[in-house]
């Protein structure tokens, strides 16, 4: 049965919404409400639903009922646009992620390039929010965010170059297949997930993600004790909720991207089922693939949130020094070694 173009477009939109909101809700409940609570020896929300399982819906309902306020001297049109810019960048990111052999929204040949480029859009939303709020704390938060995100985008890009060199493609589907059909020392039992051969790139990428998300220890743009929540200070009601959703949705989407680049994405080693390539993958992988990818995403999100709840905040000078003097040189060295081994082997 052929689906008309408008039907395909509608399915892609619905799929994108699910791919963004489902991980966001899962991360909030599992890690923000429960994991952090147990790490701090407390129960967390317990009243809304069994074991507090409906607390997320209660929080969303609460914020929807709050009044949408804006400072008198704010640039109201731009002030209201900022949260949407941040959220839209998250939805655009998920478009490049393959969820199965045929389960993808768009199969970009330069999917890695697209994802890294789109991830920069959120910086504009944060800058706009800080400037348009007519609040000195918000402006400082926006400027801090701009400096931080620009500094850590470079090591994130450099960390991915090693994966692109090794896979020989910027297509994310090709990167998934390359990992699941590869071998290590002639053994195909675990295929070749790039987290093994590109472990340095993986660590740099995860650190850069932590900084891009402005999560502790890289939360200087928000810094409640210094900037009263920074660029979000003047936001309330639904617009604050959008920032909140975008933050945790981006955790999920970046974890999905890291899973594709370093953990084999939706796949498992093809040799387990005598698959030779993508054409031989059974149709049921279009169903099992998203579940496999979701599991890997939860694992990486756990690492991100664990770091968030465990480390104190950097100083601004420490943050910049760490990016420019540590992560970038290490990433460049990783690229050089990868390129030499690619040519030699």
Question: Which features does this protein show?
Answer:
13 helices; about 0% strand; mainly alpha; about 350 residues; globular
Largest sheet: none
Q: What general form does the structure show?
A: globular
Cα radius of gyration in angstroms:
21 Å
Q: Report strand %.
A: under 5%
* DSSP summary, beta strand count: 0
Can you offer a commentary on this structure?
Helix content is 66%, strand content 0%. The protein has one domain. It is built from 13 helices and no strands. By secondary structure, it is mainly α.
Can you describe this structure in just a few lines?
The protein is mainly alpha-helical and 345 residues long.
Task: Summarize the topology.
Blueprint: H1 5-39, H2 55-65, H3 76-94, H4 111-118, H5 121-132, H6 136-167, H7 172-181, H8 194-197, H9 199-212, H10 224-227, H11 237-262, H12 285-308, H13 316-344
Helix pairs in contact: 1-11, 1-12, 2-11, 3-4, 3-5, 3-11, 5-6, 6-9, 6-13, 9-11, 11-12
